Amino acid sequence: MEELKNLDMDAYAWLTKPGKPHRNWSRSHFSTHVKCHMLLNNMCESFNSFIFACRDKPILTMLEIVMCKLMRRIQGRMDKMKNLTKEICPKIFKKVDINKAKAGGCVTMWSGGGKFQVGSSGISQYIVDLDLRNCSCR
Asked: Entry's PANTHER family (predicted)?
């Protein structure tokens, strides 16, 4: 912070203003959990392979072909989902099952208030604060 203070006094004043929690601006307080398991590059490559056959067409023809392909794809997904008996799709159901199995090895002890100590297989211990919505594991 001292380096920032020397570099830009306005930025330092803004960040140290009361009421600005560190979790909103400090990299050390950001969540490290992945929000999306798909890289942008993979999406671009998938899209390019999806439109590969019609890329040499005039723009309106290309867009018409892409629209038809997307409509067929959406309809196919809807037909698959109609045949499912569970309330959530299979990939998400599998992830929930894996997380339930992992949670079975956790032992939770109430520490008072909204704080809990959670131990997993006796190896690691974490403090979870439900009021502040944070965990010592970050």
From this structure: MUTATOR TRANSPOSASE MUDRA PROTEIN, POLYPROTEIN, PUTATIVE-RELATED
